């Protein structure tokens, strides 16, 4: 796309693609569906004359957001028959992946994406556009074809819902990396005492195998003792060719587990506000969601 004339439809779309990807991914939590929505947005955009559109950025975001809302209906039906907990598809970048880092700079954490799954599609769209990307309520109203007062109500409900389930705080990336490494060492080393020390009493383990890979069970596991003992039991039999690498997943230092050079799991830990304990563990083992991990 970069060889296209500067004002062509192709180049204008390419210039906004990273923004569109970030918005849609945060709305859907699926890379494959995000790519499908961007393809639909491109087809809609390509049928128009860019010279006739006063604000291409606003136009493209509006197309993408509404295509993503339409896609939510398909995703909801798909998840009704999904086996076990559903987790977002992880976005993985290495520290030297500058392009990927730019692409994912607006992606929210795995833990927050899980909370956003409990919002209605409209609430989630408004929350992402306003809280993550900084769009004004009036701009969002234009995108969604709703009046600003209705959008403000949606924003208020979404913010209260998210705040009640995940109060806003930020853990230092260095602390996130150190605690993640301690957790991985304890879990894969079968060290029950070390796990009990690092896990918060209210810790929850989510494992998304999609019925195609090993998972902790059909529901999340709650409580320090249950989670620690399950993790130790899972690692009692060593995996041949195990290789654990540390990458940024949805912007946070996390672990990627390889077995025999193939992706086996992505593991993200969510820390307590003081950064001392693990209160959430998100493990994706569904091979369909690991296809882009390398």
Essential attributes:
294 residues; alpha+beta; Butyryl-CoA Dehydrogenase, subunit A, domain 3; Nuclear Transport Factor 2, Chain: A; 2 domains; 50% helix; globular
Brief summary of the model shown:
The protein has helices spanning 9-28, 31-46, 56-80, 98-103, 110-116, 121-132, 137-144, 148-165, 173-188, 192-198, 224-234; strands at 92-93, 199-208, 221-222, 242-249, 252-259, 262-271, 278-284. The protein has 294 residues and is of the alpha+beta class.
What report would you give on this structure?
It is a single chain. With 294 residues, the chain is of the alpha+beta class. The chain folds into two domains: 9-86 and 112-165, Butyryl-CoA Dehydrogenase, subunit A, domain 3 (Up-down Bundle); 173-290, Roll (Nuclear Transport Factor 2, Chain: A). The protein is built from eleven helices and seven strands. The chain has helices spanning 9-28, 31-46, 56-80, 98-103, 110-116, 121-132, 137-144, 148-165, 173-188, 192-198, 224-234, and strands at residues 92-93, 199-208, 221-222, 242-249, 252-259, 262-271, 278-284. A seven-stranded mixed β-sheet has the order 1-4-5-6-7-2-3. The longest helix is centred in the N-terminal third of the chain and has 25 residues, at 56-80.
Oligomer: single chain
| CATH topology description of the largest domain | Butyryl-CoA Dehydrogenase, subunit A, domain 3
User: Could you name the CATH homologous superfamily of the largest domain?
Assistant: PhyR, sigma-like (SL) domain
Number of strands: 7
Distance between the termini: 25 Å
What do the pLDDT scores average to? 90
- DSSP strand content: 15-25%
Largest sheet: 7 strands, mixed
- The whole-angstrom Rg is 20 Å
Strand neighbour order, sheet with most strands: 1-4-5-6-7-2-3
Number of domains: 2
Structural class based on helices, strands and sheet pairing: alpha+beta
């Amino acid at each position: 796309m970069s060889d296209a004339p500067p004002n062509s439809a192709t180049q204008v779309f390419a210039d906004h693609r990273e923004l569109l990807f970030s918005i849609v991914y945060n709305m859907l939590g699926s890379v494959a569906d995000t790519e499908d929505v961007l393809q639909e947005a491109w087809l809609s955009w390509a049928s128009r004359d860019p010279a006739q559109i006063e604000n291409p950025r606003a136009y493209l975001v509006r197309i993408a957001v509404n295509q993503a809302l339409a896609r939510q209906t398909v995703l909801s039906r798909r998840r009704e028959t999904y086996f076990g907990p559903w987790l977002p598809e992880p976005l993985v970048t290495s520290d030297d992946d500058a392009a990927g880092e730019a692409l994912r700079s607006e992606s929210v954490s795995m833990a927050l994406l899980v909370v956003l799954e409990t919002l209605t599609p409209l609430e989630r769209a408004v929350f992402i556009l306003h809280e993550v990307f900084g769009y004004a309520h009036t701009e969002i109203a234009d995108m969604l074809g709703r009046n600003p007062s209705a959008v403000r109500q949606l924003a208020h409900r979404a913010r209260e819902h998210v705040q009640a389930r995940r109060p806003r705080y930020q853990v230092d990336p260095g602390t996130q990396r150190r605690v993640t490494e301690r957790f991985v060492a304890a879990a894969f080393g079968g060290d029950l005492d070390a796990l009990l020390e690092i896990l918060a009493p209210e810790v929850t383990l989510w494992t998304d195998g999609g019925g195609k890979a090993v998972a902790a069970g059909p529901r999340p596991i709650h409580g320090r003792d249950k989670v620690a003992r399950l993790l130790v039991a899972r690692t009692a039999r060593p995996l041949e060719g195990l290789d654990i690498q540390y990458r940024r997943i949805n912007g946070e230092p996390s672990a990627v587990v390889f077995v025999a050079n193939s992706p086996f799991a992505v593991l993200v830990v969510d820390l307590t506000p003081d950064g001392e304990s693990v209160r959430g563990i998100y493990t994706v083992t569904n091979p369909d969601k690991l296809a882009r991990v390398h």
